[in-house]
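Quick log. Single chain, no ligands specified.
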Amino acid sequence: MSEVRAPWDHLPPPVVRARRDKPVPDPDAPKKDRGRKRKSASRYRSGANDEWLFHHLIVVGPAADIALFQEAARGPGIIPWRLDCDVIEEDIFNLTVSQPPAVRGVSVEYCRAQARQFVERVQAREARAAERAVAGRGCPFDLQVLLPIPSDILELGMRHPTAIAWLAKHWGTEDRLLQVATSVKARPGRRIARESRFLGYSFFTVDHAPKAAVAAIARSRPSLSFTLRSRPMSWERGWLI
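-> predicted structure:
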């Protein structure tokens, strides 16, 4: 059975450091080792298979080229995948009806209706996304605009092995960038020429950084320099490592 993922799934947690009250020390408790310990990889996991990464991208170059790139990088922030709604409905139905009756607690007919309602929600979301693709440019750094996925790959669907392989090779990540925003915190960290300017972006990805995409964009714009800084995110604690 193919994996089914709705367009609104896998949104990253908020980048908010949780406030924690300091515990009162126990004078009788044994002393803890103050040495620096290596962080376990499992601490960074947001789920069984996903690791969220937070990124800052800094672009530096001549003021005129920076302005042109800033305009060219804007887009709707979506990927217009073709959806096979019949396959999605059948997959959802099979997922629910395969459970024992005592576990699922609903009839087979209800499972079918639930799968149909799910597909209707997906279609409604896709219709709104299509409207955004025509009129919207709310995403300040859109990989689909800068490095468009070929139409024949889009026809395969987002979970097709060939589509995933194309994204891994050309983008370095298997999905679009999430929660993309301009960032005042993304700075070069060094002096730049007086006539130069810089742009800062922040965004999330799942599992992998878009290094291949950034490298390809940098090759196509030799007057600009691109620096990508990535950090893992703790899902359990809801804050950046």
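The chain is about 35% helix and 15% strand.
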